[in-house]
Amino acid sequence: MAAVPKQMRAVQIKGGKGPSSSLYIAPDVAVPEAGADDVLVKVAVFGLNRMDLLQREGAYPVPPGASPIMGVEFSGHVVASPGGHFTPGDAVFGLATGGAYAEYITCPARMVLAKPDALSHEQAAAIPENFLTAYQALHRLAEMREGETVLVHAGASGVGLAAIQLARLLGAKRIFVTAGSADKCAFCEKLGADAAINYKETDWAAELAKQTDGRGVDVIMDFIGAGYFNQNLASLARDGRLVLQGMMGGTQVKDVNIGQLLLKRLRVEGSTLRSRDIEYQSSLVQDFVHSGNLDRLAEGVGREKTDDDVHHIVIHKVFSWNDIKGAHDEMAANKNTGKIVVTVD
């Protein structure tokens, strides 16, 4: 392969933070060096996540030691692997703590996976954050069990669609979702949700209570935060678990009835995957692979959305990084059903 240059192009933010119009591609960013246990990858595609928008606005602190460059998931080709974990030229994809909005990225080898031939680079880059976030929330945090009921907010988002499929695989009795349009609701149901509630037209908590005969659900996966907190507590069944993974609806909650936590024995847990240490993240990556979920994703290529023995990677739109502003604007406007990915041209 060609020698690695000392400098690369990477997406930067004018002034360090700002609106989407402050994004630009800098031509002279230093190429990161790979340590003994790292892999240096030439990025082909990276995935877009809501945390990127928050980081751009200065509202998402970068974890200690992480690259200040945005982006936590990527696909591409190995350039160097000092520890011999991969061979230069290998097609890979992976999860990182930052740095994916660039021509090159270094990543711990145990967080990098060989790309199955059945997956395109666009599909591979759409996997890590979505499926690992959903897998962590349902499997590790909520400890969802077969026969339980689940509610997934933002069901048509990339993570939401992954959660629908994983909940089905884990044996959920019924899967409910909220989404913001009839088309999004229909898509969620096609992918495996038993009922999708349009929160723009219906009081979702009242509708959920009606559909569960007032019992509520066992697990709620939420990205909204304060805006839904009280309704979430009311919507949980006895011994229910609420996993908070976002704060799109704010961080300050008023008039919380904590009696529900005691009387219904509820558990509330918050988590962001990016803030976890490398050991945790890498173990989650390997657990996901060993569970057979990566194989299901590869097997799902070209299969009907109604096939329930595989997973499907739903890509909303592929942008060039020359239109990184447009990609951010698309997500900010909540236009996406599925994942937004960006090619490094």
Please give a structural write-up.
The protein has two domains: 7-126 and 315-343, Medium-chain alcohol dehydrogenases, catalytic domain (Quinone Oxidoreductase, Chain A, domain 1, Alpha-Beta Complex), CATH 3.90.180; 131-270, NAD(P)-binding Rossmann-like Domain (Rossmann fold, 3-Layer(aba) Sandwich). The chain is globular, with a radius of gyration of 20 Å. The longest helix has 14 residues, at 128-141. The model has no long low-confidence stretch (mean pLDDT 95). It has eleven helices and 15 strands. Strands 3, 4, 5, 6, 7, 14 and 15 form a seven-stranded mixed β-sheet that branches. A six-stranded parallel β-sheet has the order 10-9-8-11-12-13, sandwiched between helices. It has a two-stranded antiparallel ribbon with strand order 1-2. It is an alpha/beta fold. 28% of the residues lie in helices and 26% in strands. This is Quinone oxidoreductase putative. It comes from Acaromyces ingoldii. Keywords: NADP, Oxidoreductase.
Layout of strands and helices, then pairs:
Layout: E1 7-13, E2 23-30, E3 38-47, H1 50-56, E4 73-80, E5 91-95, E6 104-108, E7 112-114, H2 121-125, H3 128-141, E8 149-152, H4 158-169, E9 174-179, H5 182-191, E10 195-198, H6 204-211, E11 217-222, H7 229-235, E12 236-244, H8 259-263, E13 267-270, H9 278-290, H10 293-299, E14 315-320, H11 324-332, E15 339-343
Parallel strand pairs: 8-9, 8-11, 9-10, 11-12, 12-13, 14-15
Antiparallel strand pairs: 1-2, 3-4, 3-6, 3-15, 4-5, 5-7
Helix pairs in contact: 3-4
